[in-house]
């Protein structure tokens, strides 16, 4: 199953993570991600289809966030399930990556922070 | 084994493929034991992090070295113990370091800190070669007896 896809909109990328992301997925996913993202633009991270993540998945997200921050672009996420929210909370991710429930909220937010 | 406990043990080489197999075995056991008080995603997360820690920091990716896994549900607790064949490591120092580095975008190292947030006890034993975590379950100590009698 393809675990990541990237759609380039006019003002931002939408990066969708899907399924279960574990340690051995990390390098291929990272390569795939940065093949598709060529220029610095804000990122909306769609987590609605992400079922499970371990620390490698967190690392992937943090590397994308760093890439955005270094280019002065914003990043927001939406649609995380309860497990993902709990993991993000333990890792203090919400303090550096805004999380909302819906795509509409994410689009509004990215226009403010992007 | 006492009636009121469920135990699963396994030994695997230090490869991620074998890690996945044993995690799925434990998850299947949890389903069979009807231990719904621990979300299976948490079981999987905790096992993944403990086993990957043992492979990376314990056995240093040496596939000739093995990892011993003991997991049990008894006395209202889930106990998970992972032992590697490495030289041991300073668990408390690692935990402290991981907490400090948590949101600094670094590529590795926050797994044990996150596991520590999910469990009630984390113990480093056997000169750092064994890591044991205990998670309290929200059911009484006679859970399995009641199931057997029901």
Strand order of the largest sheet of chain A: 1-2-3-4-5
The tally of strands of chain B reads 5
Multimeric organization:
heterodimer
Could you say how many structural domains of chain B there are in total?
1
Outline of chain B: globular
Query: How many β-strand runs of chain A?
Result: 5
The average pLDDT value of chain A, as a whole number, equals 90
**CATH domain topology of chain B:** Heat Shock Protein 90
- Poorly predicted runs of chain B are none
- The SSE string of chain A, one letter per element, is EEHEHEHEH
Strand content of chain B: 15-25%
Q: What is the level-2 CATH architecture name of chain A?
A: 2-Layer Sandwich
Compute the average pLDDT of chain B: 85
Q: Biggest interface, which chains?
A: A-B, 21 and 22 residues
CATH class of chain A: Alpha Beta
Largest sheet of chain A: 5 strands, mixed
List SSEs of chain B in N-to-C order. Answer: EHHEEHHEEH
Radius of gyration of chain B: 16 Å
Major sheet details of chain B: 5 strands, antiparallel
Shape of chain A: globular
In words, what does this structure look like?
The complex is a heterodimer of chains A (114) and B (150). Chain A has 114 residues and is of the alpha/beta class. Chain A has one domain: Transcription Regulator spoIIAA, CATH 3.30.750.24. In chain A, 41% of the residues lie in helices and 27% in strands. A five-stranded mixed beta sheet of chain A has the order 1-2-3-4-5, with helices on both faces. In chain A, helix 2 links the parallel strand 3 and strand 4 (75-78). The longest helix of chain A has 16 residues, at 55-70. Chain A is globular, with a radius of gyration of 13 Å. In chain A, 38% of the residues are buried. The model of chain A has no long low-confidence stretch (mean pLDDT 90). Chain B has five helices and five strands; from the N terminus they run E-H-H-E-E-H-H-E-E-H. Chain B has helices spanning 16-33, 40-58, 91-100, 111-118, 143-149; strands spanning 5-13, 66-74, 77-83, 121-125, 130-136. Chain B has a five-stranded antiparallel beta sheet with strand order 1-2-3-5-4, with helices on one face. The longest helix of chain B is centred in the N-terminal third of the chain and has 19 residues, at 40-58. The two termini of chain B are 20 Å apart. The model of chain B has no long low-confidence stretch (mean pLDDT 85). Chain A binds chain B through residues 22-24, 51-52, 54-55, 58-59, 62-63, 65-66, 83, 87, 90-93, 95-96, and chain B through 16, 20, 39, 41-42, 44-45, 48-49, 52, 102-103, 105-108, 110-111, 113-114, 117-118.
